[in-house]
Amino acid sequence: VQFGARGTPHFFINGIRLRGAQPLEKFKEVIDAELKKAEELRNNGVKDVYAEVTKNGLLKDKAPEAKPQQEDTNIYKVALNPNAPLKGDKDAVVTIMLFTDFQCPFCSRVNPTLDKIVQDYPGKVRLYFHNLPLPFHKSAIPAANAALYAHEKGKFWEMHDKLFANQKDLSIEAMMGFAKEIGLNADEMKAA
Q1: Are strands 94-100 and 10-13 parallel, antiparallel or unpaired?
Q2: How far apart are CA 178 and CA 183, in angstroms?
Q3: For the chain (length 192 residues), average pLDDT per consecutive 10?
């Protein structure tokens, strides 16, 4: 549980922590400020905006305990995983790191907001998905594994959408059905 991300959904927008299923306006407030900062950095010759804005950020072993009601003004140095599922432009100047759980009802509620952000900021925002299955959700780990298998086969977002749309039944049998629906080998997924 890195950087104090113990609940889901949990976001880091260019290293700025945002907790919970926030309204679109809150995301836009942070993204617009980061776009302004990115434009200035690009005008000064900075090519990798994310690396620049997070270079002095807190590392996971230095992150303070998250306090739900307190605004966190720290910047976190969350390493990019280029193999993580990505939505948006890989060269975008604003990076959203999403930590989520397929069984979390709050996570499913934020998905339309995230889709709207990617749509409203074409070429400017990229969203990296990270599994954070919570221990009290009995189907969260199998669902995360199904999504990772789908990612290996180039079908992550299709499986992502199926899992969130069917949160009330994330049984192995149901997930095998989702795999078949999106053109994956269900038996191979189960074995994996």
Answers
A1: antiparallel
A2: 9
A3: 73 91 94 96 95 86 58 82 93 95 93 95 96 90 96 97 96 96 93 84
C-alpha to C-alpha distance for 146 and 174, rounded to whole angstroms:
11
Digit-coded pLDDT (tens) for 92-106: 999 999 999 999 999
Q: Which residue is listed with tokens 């009802």? A: 105
d(CA 32, CA 4): 25
Q: From CA 68, how far away is CA 61, in angstroms rounded?
A: 19
Rounded distance between C-alpha atoms, residue 124 and residue 94, angstroms: 6
Q: Which residues contact 145 (CB under 8 A, 6 or more apart)?
A: 192
Distance in angstroms (rounded) separating the CA atoms of residues 113 and 179: 25
31 vs 17: CA distance, rounded Å: 12
Rounded alpha-carbon distances, angstroms, from residue 144 to 85, 89, 127, 130, 154:
12, 24, 17, 9, 15
Using CA atoms, how far residue 137 sits from 1, 95, 157, 160, 174, in Å, is 16, 28, 21, 17, 16
pTM of the model: 0.88
